[in-house]
Amino acid sequence: MKGQKGFISTGKWPLSGLFHTFARWQLLHQERQMLATLSDDALKDIGLNRADVAQESHRHFWEDPLRK
Asked: What's the rounded Cα separation, in Å, for the pair 2 and 25?
């Protein structure tokens, strides 16, 4: 409609933002666990070492390096 520039939809549920934040934290935790299971050769292929993985796996779940 005319004159509705900047309209922001908050979603159908009032807690949808909280759900998305929790889902992102859970995904980040899973990615950190999978990173810890990679072999040294696989880590070398992506430019990491065991010290990088140890540092990343000890971060708290709320520490999102991309801050999305």
From this structure: 38
SS3 37: coil
Longest pairwise C-alpha distance within the chain? 58
Domain ranges of the chain: 17-57
- Residue with token string 């990173």: 35
Residue 60's pLDDT is 77
Q: How far is CA 47 from CA 36, 44, 67, in A?
A: 14, 5, 22
pLDDT digits (tens, 9 = 90+) for 2-41: 555 555 555 577 788 888 888 888 888 888 889 999 999 9
Note if the pTM is more than 0.70.
no
Q: Are 57 and 36 in contact (CB under 8 A)?
A: yes
Q: How many residues does the chain have?
A: 68
Cα separation, 30 vs 24, in Å, equals 10
